[in-house]
Design brief:
67% of the residues lie in helices and 5% in strands. The protein is mainly alpha-helical and 329 residues long. It is globular.
């Protein structure tokens, strides 16, 4: 489109390229380390790639598994909130069409409903923060493996969840071994950006751009009986944006080491490029086994220990009637 002045407006990619050149050409600033500048540029490229994916078929295909991953993390946050409010988690399901659902009995819906968007955006912000440092990214990778193992336990009947999480676990192993784990750092950063943007975009799409009656915001508005779904969607959107910005700012302030300093510390923490694949695979195996063992052991007595007043006849108000109502062992 030609403006009245005869000038052609710049494309988003050219604007991003100019901003990148300007950021790299800035003189040394004690407030922003060089490693943080590079991280900001990479994060910006992630944002652009995610934003234009629907218009670039190859990007849409490449990002498809990551979209399923963040959907799974969204559902996991619902489930974890349910556990904290004494709910019985029945299953997590992932849909190949990028949808998901969490079935639970009991709990406090006023907490479990917003936990999906807010929890996934909070996890995404934390991953963005640790994405500014290699050693912190290693710790985050181990935590993610444990969380994914818990997800697989609840989604054990979903082949989509197994395929997605096993692929991501393999990518963690591979990136851990590349370039003293610098590749892992940017991989964790990408998951964080993807998780935050997914929460922000889905809130806008489901509540502000169009009203979806089955969305979390619509069900929450119906449950609370105060304000509409657009109000709660806007409120959650504001919180998700705050988490996103806070994740970036905390990363800039906290992690200020140079590339050499980060590499030395990363090599001391479970190694970097010199680490053998067997070591990382051992960490992965033990993480999965530990999470699975904890869940299996706690399944029999979790309700009686943490929720002594729980009754098997209490049904989640958003769960359809019927289903198995076995008493807890």
């Amino acid at each position: 489109m030609i403006l009245k002045s005869g000038l052609i407006p710049p494309s988003p990619l050219s604007v991003f390229g100019a901003a990148t050149d300007s950021l790299l050409s800035l003189p040394d600033d004690p407030c922003v380390a060089h490693t943080s500048r590079v991280t900001l540029i990479v994060a910006g490229s992630y944002v652009v790639a995610i934003a234009i994916r629907e218009h670039v078929p190859i990007l849409e295909k490449l990002l498809y598994p990551f979209k399923l991953l963040v959907v799974g993390m969204h559902e996991l946050c619902h489930a974890l909130a349910g556990v904290l409010t004494c709910a019985k988690i029945e299953s997590i399901e992932l849909d190949p069409n990028e949808g998901g659902s969490t079935r639970m009995r009991g709990g406090i819906p006023a907490i479990t409903l917003p936990a999906g968007y807010l929890g996934s955006s909070l996890i995404g912000a934390a991953l963005i923060t640790v994405g500014f440092d290699t050693s912190a990214s290693k710790v985050a990778a181990i935590v993610l493996l444990v969380l994914w193992a818990i997800t697989l336990y609840w989604a054990r009947r979903s082949w989509v969840a197994y395929a997605t999480i096993l692929m991501m676990a393999a990518l963690i192993v591979i990136t851990w071994l590349v370039a003293h784990s610098v590749a892992l750092r940017f991989f964790i950063l990408f998951i964080g950006v993807m998780s935050c943007l997914y929460a922000i975009w889905d809130i806008i799409d489901d509540t502000l751009a169009r009203k979806v009656n089955s969305s979390d915001a619509s069900e929450y508005a119906h449950l609370i009986g105060c304000c509409g779904s657009r109000f709660w969607g806007a409120f959650w959107l504001l919180q998700a944006c705050v988490f996103f910005v806070a994740g970036i700012l905390v990363g800039i302030v906290v992690f200020r080491d140079s590339w050499e300093q980060q590499r030395e510390r990363a090599d001391r923490f479970l190694g970097g490029k010199s680490t053998t694949a067997s070591l990382v695979l051992t960490i992965l195996r033990h993480s999965l086994n530990t999470a699975g063992t904890i869940l299996v052991d706690q399944r029999a007595n979790a309700m009686s220990v943490f929720c002594p007043y729980w009754t098997p006849h209490y049904r989640h108000p958003l769960l359809p009637p019927g289903g198995d109502r076995r008493d807890p062992p």
